Amino acid sequence: MRHTDTGDAAAPLLAASDLVKTYGGTEALRGASLDLRAGETVAVTGASGSGKSTLLHCLAGMVRPDSGTVRYAGERLEEAPERRLSELRRTDFGMVFQFGQLIPELTALDNVALPLMLGGSGRTEARERAGTWMERFGVWGQRELRPGQMSGGQAQRTALARALVTGPAVVFADEPTGALDSLASERVMTVLTQTVRESGTAVLLVTHDALVAAYADREVALRDGVTAPAGVGV
Question: Which residues form the ABC transporter domain (predicted)?
Answer without folding.
Answer: 14-234
